[in-house]
Amino acid sequence: MGQIDIDVLVVDVRRHRKLGQEVATRTGVRHESPQVIVLRDGRAVWSASHCAITADAVAQAVGDHAPAPTHPAG
């Protein structure tokens, strides 16, 4: 995750099992380790595990699911 140029929140669910269970319950994404889940407005919009986790894949997933920019009226 240190190879991508975006802000991310990393949660170590191995150390915090109850949190990992809650993430799986709320998102509907089965827990795997290692795993990346991209959330938007509390919904899982992309997930990957193991070898599918690459800096490029995560950066693309975040970019693909980024909120549309807002432009001031004028």
Count of DSSP-assigned helices: 2
Please give the order of strands in the largest beta sheet.
1-2
| H-E string | HEEH
| Share of residues in strands | 15-25%
The largest sheet, given as strand count, sense and whether it forms a barrel, is:
2 strands, antiparallel
Shape: globular
CA gyration radius, whole angstroms: 14 Å
Structural class determined from secondary elements: alpha+beta
Q: Could you give a short description of this structure?
A:
The protein is α+β, with helices and mostly antiparallel strands and 74 residues long. Helices cover 28% and strands 18% of the residues. It is globular.
Give structural attributes.
74 residues; 18% strand; globular; two-stranded antiparallel ribbon; alpha+beta; 2 strands
Report on the structure:
- A two-stranded antiparallel ribbon has the order 1-2.
- The longest helix is centred in the first third of the chain and has 11 residues.
- The chain has a domain of 48 residues.
- It starts with 16 loop residues before the first helix and ends in a 10-residue tail after the last helix.
- With 74 residues, it is of the alpha+beta class.
- Helix content is 28%, strand content 18%.
Topology:
Blueprint: H1 17-27, E1 35-40, E2 43-49, H2 55-64
Antiparallel strand pairs: 1-2
